[in-house]
C-alpha cells in the first residue's frame, strides 16, 4: 500500500495537476512557524516541528482533500534576539512571503487556504494583513494558530498552570515529550519554570485534540460554513482574544 502523501513537495507536478483538475484538492495548509530560543531544554526548531506535525496530521484526517505547503520555518522573533541562535525576519517581509505562498497556491488552482500558525510572534503581523490578503487573493483564506481550536475546558483539564501555549513551558514541553522526545534536553530544564509540569501524557492528549480541531476547521472552510474563531491564548482567567481594533489593518 502506498503511503498517503499530503505535503505538496512530496507530489510530482503531474500528481498535483491531476488532483487539481479532477477536483480532489479542495484546500491547502500554509504552516508558519519560527526558529528561536526555547529556554535551555527545547530545541529551537520546536515551533516548526510542532506546526508541521499539525499540518500533516490534520491533512491526513481529510485525505485526499487537503494538501500542505512546505512549512515557513523562520518568523517574527525579534523579541528573542538577545538569545543567540534565534533567527528572525522583519514583520513586513514575513507577511509578504506568506502572501506570495498563498498567491502561488491560488494560481495553482487552490480555492481554500488555511494559514496554520505555530508561533505566537507571527499572530499580530499576520492579523494586521488578513483583510488585505482576502481582498487581493479573492479566495477563502484565513489565519489561525493550531491552539486556537482548543475548547477552553480541555485546556484547564490538562494544564496545571492554566496557561497555553506559553513559551517552552508546561504546554510546549508536553507537546515535545509526546511528538519528538529526542528534542527535549531534560538535564538542562530550568526547574523554576513551569516546564517541569510537562508530561508526555498531556502532550499526547492535547496533540490529538488539536489535530481534530484543525481538521474540523478545514472541513468548515471547504463546506463554506461561517467560522468564528479568533486567535487567542489561554490564561488563569480564561481564553483571551488576540484581536484588538488597533491591530487590524484600516482601524486606527
State the major sheet. 4 strands, parallel
Strands, total number = 6
Strand content: 5-15%
Secondary-structure element order, N to C: HEHEHEHHEHHHEE
CATH superfamily of the domain at 25-150 and 210-247: Creatininase
Count up the helices: 8
- CATH topology name of the domain at 25-150 and 210-247, in short, is Rossmann fold
CATH architecture of the domain at 25-150 and 210-247: 3-Layer(aba) Sandwich
Shape: globular
In what order do the strands lie side by side in the largest sheet?
2-1-3-4
> Structural class of the secondary structure composition?
alpha/beta
Instruction: Identify the CATH class of the domain at 25-150 and 210-247.
Output: Alpha Beta
Mean pLDDT: 95
Helix fraction, binned, reads 25-40%
Report how far apart the termini are. 55 Å
Low-confidence stretches: 245-252
Evaluate the radius of gyration. 18 Å
Concise structural overview:
The protein has 252 residues and is α/β, with parallel strands linked by helices.
Structural features, described:
This protein has 252 residues and is of the alpha/beta class. The protein has a domain at 25-150 and 210-247: Rossmann fold (3-Layer(aba) Sandwich), CATH 3.40.50. The protein contains eight helices and six strands; from the N terminus they run αβαβαβααβαααββ. The strands form two sheets. The protein has a four-stranded parallel sheet with strand order 2-1-3-4, sandwiched between helices. Helix 2 links the parallel strand 1 (27-32) and strand 2. Helix 2 packs across helix 8 (200-223) and helix 7 (170-179) packs across helix 8 (200-223). The radius of gyration is 18 Å and the shape is globular. The N and C termini lie far apart (55 Å). The relative contact order is 0.16. Residues 245-252 have low confidence and may be disordered.
Amino acid at each position: 500500500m502506498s503511503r498517503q502523501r499530503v505535503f505538496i513537495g512530496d507530489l510530482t507536478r503531474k500528481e498535483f495537476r491531476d488532483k487539481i483538475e479532477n477536483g480532489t484538492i479542495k484546500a491547502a495548509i500554509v504552516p508558519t512557524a519560527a526558529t528561536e530560543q526555547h529556554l535551555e531544554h527545547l530545541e529551537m526548531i520546536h515551533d516548526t516541528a510542532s506546526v508541521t506535525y499539525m499540518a500533516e496530521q490534520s491533512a491526513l484526517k481529510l485525505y485526499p482533500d487537503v494538501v500542505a505547503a512546505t512549512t515557513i520555518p523562520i518568523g517574527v522573533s525579534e523579541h528573542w534576539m538577545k538569545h543567540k541562535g534565534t533567527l528572525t525576519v522583519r514583520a513586513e517581509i514575513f507577511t509578504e512571503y506568506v502572501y506570495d505562498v498563498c498567491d502561488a497556491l491560488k494560481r495553482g488552482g487552490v480555492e481554500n487556504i488555511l494559514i496554520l500558525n505555530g508561533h505566537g510572534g507571527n499572530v499580530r503581523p499576520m492579523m494586521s494583513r488578513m483583510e488585505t490578503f482576502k481582498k487581493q487573493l479573492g479566495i477563502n483564506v484565513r489565519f489561525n494558530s493550531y491552539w486556537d481550536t482548543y475548547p477552553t475546558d480541555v485546556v484547564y483539564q490538562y494544564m496545571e498552570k492554566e496557561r497555553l501555549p506559553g513559551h517552552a513551558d508546561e504546554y510546549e514541553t508536553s507537546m515535545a515529550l509526546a511528538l519528538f522526545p529526542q528534542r527535549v534536553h531534560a538535564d538542562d530544564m530550568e526547574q523554576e519554570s513551569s516546564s517541569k509540569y510537562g508530561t508526555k501524557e498531556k502532550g499526547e492528549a492535547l496533540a490529538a485534540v488539536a489535530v481534530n480541531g484543525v481538521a474540523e476547521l478545514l472541513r468548515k472552510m471547504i463546506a463554506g460554513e461561517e467560522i468564528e474563531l479568533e486567535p487567542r491564548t489561554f490564561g488563569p482567567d480564561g481564553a483571551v482574544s488576540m484581536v484588538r481594533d488597533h491591530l487590524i489593518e484600516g482601524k486606527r
